[in-house]
Each structure stands twice: as structure tokens, then as C-alpha cells.
Amino acid sequence: MIASAAGGRQAAPLIFLIAGEPSGDLLGARLMAALRAETGGAVRFAGIGGERMIAAGLDSLISIDELAIMGVFEVVPHALRIIRRIRQTAATVRAMRPAAVVTIDSPSFSLEVSLRLRGLGIPLIHYVAPQVWAWKPWRAAKMARHVDHLLTLLPFEAPYFEKHGLATTFVGHPAVEMKDYAANPAAFRAGHGIAAAAPVICVLPGSRRGEVRRLAPIFSATLGRLAERFPGLRALAPTVSTVASEVTALAPTWPVPTTVLTEPAEKAEAFAASDVALAASGTVAVELAVAGVASVIGYRVSPMTAFIARRVVKSRYASLPNILLGREVQPELIQENCTPDKLAAALGILLDDPKARTAQVEAAGEAIRLLTPGGMSPSRRAAQIVLSLIDAKPK
Length: 395
Prior knowledge:
46% helix, 17 helices, Rossmann fold
């Protein structure tokens, strides 16, 4: 056994990670960093990831762009290709025989890979629980049949899976780690030619092409409404690799000067430099709450996906801070309510009234505290669980 920061274990275990979308890519990159810190660098990686995991040293088996698809009817045209990728990924894992497999979010892809790996003696760990508390509660039993251990982001999720015999650990939400990033909003504004007193809105139309296709025109029209009321309005659009080309092409057509930011490190800077944000529903709602940016959440899916969702989704809210607190802290305008007039009205209140912005940020802070267990960073806690499962594996 070779000593390491996490205790004695075999040198440089190989960990196969799978992330199927940008939010999972960020979790994966942070987990990779935490695993390196816990082992003193004695760890190797393989798998599937995006720009952040690649920057952290992963040679991705396939492009994450192929898997960043959402919605019941949106997936259908890509089904055969996804099935081929599932088979390819499982075959690669069987050939490499890693010390552990960590799948991150994207359960429709990653659980099918895990199913093909059962019985090989490789610990199968899934990071981010499916939202069984919101819809499809039967997925908890399915998860228990597919993986050995589940890492959850939310404090109330474990019982849904433990009752099916699945070992589960609440590690916290990695978005809270943004609070440790230093930012200089004055320098950022100056560097991008934005006046210190100019109103600035952060615009985030999603990380999937389908989201951008549906939301960008609505968000653009919303900016037009706001520009009439707030002279000198500027927009910042931090984006990710899966949709960077689409957002970059669209932004010049928006009715206010817009700066597109494609580097991951620029997101925290853009948040700090913004007065308010207009965002698609998703992980970014938590990131904005952590960064202290008053936000309005807008979202649309295809009509057929919405038709099904309304009949099966149990949660009253879409934004995680709202879900955790059981009340609307971040205004949500979903589906037919996601219109330029309604979005502009909600954002106008925040831009007009600093007290309204402060009230939202303070309330959202309550939710963030619920996502930070034990004072340890979620990524470090997740890394410790992964390494403990490797150590517990029969040699």
C-alpha cells in the first residue's frame, strides 16, 4: 500500500467518470480536483466530460454535446445514436476495469451504462439523485438496482432511496463552492467597457441547444422591453461549450449591447458585475443565489413535454431555492407565463428597487445554508466517499 493524503491505498486508482451535460461537467471537474487533493495526486481519470473536465485532465471518450439533450420528445430523434454510445461506453469500462465508476446526473444515459456493468465488482456510484420527490417516484427503486451508492445534493432526498436499500450520502450542492471565488466587479466592468453606473443584466438562456432555441427569442424581447425603461442597459451572457456558438451568433441581434463570455472562469465575474439576472431553470438558479444576484427564472419546454409534465410533476416550484424554502423567492415564469412582458415586469421591479434585490438575496441565503452540510465542501465530501468505496472493495 502506498501512503496518500487520504490514507494508505493502492497507488493511482483509475476512476471512470461520466457527465452528460454542462452542469454535470462542472461537478465532475470539481470532483476530479477534490480527488487529486485527497490522494496527493495519486489518481487517474478516464470517461466522458465537457470542457471543464477536459481542462482538468480528462481525455473524453465522446463529445458531451451528443448527450446534452432534454425533454421526452426532444430525445427521440437521437435515440439510436445514444444507444450506440451507451454500448460503446460500457464496453470501454469493461476493457479498462477502473477502480470505480462515477456517473454524474444524466440518468437516462448513465444508468443504462451502469446496468451493463453490474456484477463486475466495480463500485458504481451515482452523483446527483433524480428528482423522485418531484415526479416518477419509481425511479428510486430503479436507481437502487443500477448503482451501489448515491451521492445527493439535497438534504431531503436520502430517505426516498434508502427505503429501497440503496446506500445514500448527502454531500451538499457544489454550487455553494462559488462563494469561495474572488471577483472584482469594478475591474470587470471597466475591462468590458461598461460604465460603473450602468444597469447590467446577466442573461442565461440555458446550456442545451433546445433551451436556447426556445428561450433566446423570449429573453431578447424581454431585453427590448427593459431597454425602454432603463437607458444604458447592458447584458452579460456567460455560456458553455454546448451552446457557445448559438449564443455568440444570437447576441449581436439582441436589442442591448451584450458581452458573451465563453470562459468558465468568467461566470463568477459576470455574476458579481450584474445587478440582476434572467435565467433558465436549472443549476444556475442556485449559482445565482450563492453569488447574491437577484434573479428571475424563465422556462419553456415543447408543448407535448409540458403536457406530460403537468400531469406527473409534483413540485410546485422549478427553482431549487424556491423548492427548499417552500415559497417563491426567485420569481418563476414558466411555459405560457414565460413571456417578454411578464419577465420584463418582474425584472423591472428588481432593477427599480435595491431593497427588493436585497430581500431576495437574503431569503435565498436561507436555502444556500441548507445545501452546505457540516462545513465541508461538497466536492471534498463526495471525493472522500468515492475513495472509501474503492478502499472497501474486495481486493
